[in-house]
């Protein structure tokens, strides 16, 4: 054992800063939040052990928890497929060998860099205000736009559009996957008189399935964690009428507006379990539609 440590001392010494940060800043808070989820804690007073009361209250009595789940699931179910379809469409358009493709890639990736920032959320709120750019453009063609952000029928859709606008990251991954598909397959399909639709479903989709699966899992997790856009546009309360009450916004409100840290910790663990369950389902279903190169022999 002593010989082992002496031989690997240099490696562990270089790893030490990461290991210290991991255990103090990641594992420590994770375990602390798990313990706090079984307590009543408001920062001012010491935590008081209450067992599973936070979880019983959440699932049996808390209507805003159920509303937060409904809003978050609606956002995930609509925004993730819409973003992936849009990203794949743009990637296929860029895969045609057009000039200055590097500039187009950078231009389309820009929203993904800016999309999660507070500044873009504020800009989005200005765009969709009743007197904002969107309604001003509609008035030019004789249409009177609705109150996009104040009307619960439209408010969530503005955030879905914002999520789809951040298509740059999955688009770049799709583009790399499309470049890896052998062109000989498309040439052989053309000889067999296959049209664009048949080539897409018979060649592109099956060979791109691992990339689609990778993007699906990443974007689903990101959608469940969406926070800044809903927080800024709703003023941190989920307004109007809780139509923008994302799970993360509700968690933040419980923790930092009402100082119910124990209940917020329980919410955080429920969100973790939801994400883990959906990720596990995605991996379980992947064996039916995702095929890798080494499996084809």
Automatic annotation (TrEMBL):
Keywords: Cell membrane, Membrane, Transmembrane, Transmembrane helix, Transport
SUPFAM superfamilies the record matches: MetI-like
Transmembrane segments: 12-36, 68-94, 106-124, 154-178, 199-221, 227-252, 264-284
One cellular-component annotation, GO: plasma membrane
Record's bilayer topology term: Multi-pass membrane protein
Coiled coil: none
Localization per record: Cell membrane
Alphabetical GO biological process terms: transmembrane transport
Keyword Cell membrane included in the entry's annotation: yes
InterPro entries: ABC_transporter_permease (IPR051393), MetI-like (IPR000515), MetI-like_sf (IPR035906)
Domain ABC transmembrane type-1, residue spans: 69-282
Top-rank taxon: Bacteria
Family of this protein: Belongs to the binding-protein-dependent transport system permease family.
Protein name in the entry: Sugar ABC transporter permease
């Amino acid at each position: 054992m002593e010989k082992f440590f002496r031989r690997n001392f240099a490696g562990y010494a270089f790893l030490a800063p990461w290991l210290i940060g991991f255990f103090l800043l990641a594992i420590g808070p994770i375990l602390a939040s798990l313990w706090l989820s079984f307590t009543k804690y408001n920062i001012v007073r010491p935590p008081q052990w209450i067992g599973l009361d936070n979880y019983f209250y959440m699932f049996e009595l808390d209507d805003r928890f159920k509303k937060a789940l409904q809003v978050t699931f609606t956002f995930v179910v609509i925004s993730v497929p819409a973003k992936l379809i849009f990203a794949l469409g743009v990637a296929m358009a860029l895969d045609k060998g057009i000039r200055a493709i590097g500039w187009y890639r950078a231009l389309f990736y820009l929203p993904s860099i800016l999309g999660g920032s507070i500044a873009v959320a504020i800009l989005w709120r200005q765009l969709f205000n009743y007197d904002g750019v969107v309604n001003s453009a509609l008035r030019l063609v004789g249409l009177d736009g609705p109150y996009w952000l104040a009307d619960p029928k439209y408010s969530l859709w503005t955030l879905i559009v914002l999520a789809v606008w951040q298509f740059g990251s999955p688009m770049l991954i799709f583009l790399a996957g499309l470049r890896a598909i052998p062109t000989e397959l498309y040439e052989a399909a053309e000889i067999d008189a296959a049209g664009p639709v048949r080539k897409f479903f018979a060649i592109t989709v099956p060979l791109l399935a691992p990339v689609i699966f990778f993007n699906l899992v990443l974007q689903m997790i990101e959608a469940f964690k969406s926070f800044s856009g809903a927080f800024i546009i709703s003023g941190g309360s989920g307004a109007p009428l809780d139509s923008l009450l994302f799970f993360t916004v509700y968690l933040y409100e419980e923790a930092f507006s009402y100082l119910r840290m124990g209940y917020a910790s329980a919410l955080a663990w429920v969100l973790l379990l939801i994400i883990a369950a959906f990720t596990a389902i995605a991996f379980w279903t992947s064996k039916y539609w995702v095929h890798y190169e080494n499996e084809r022999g």
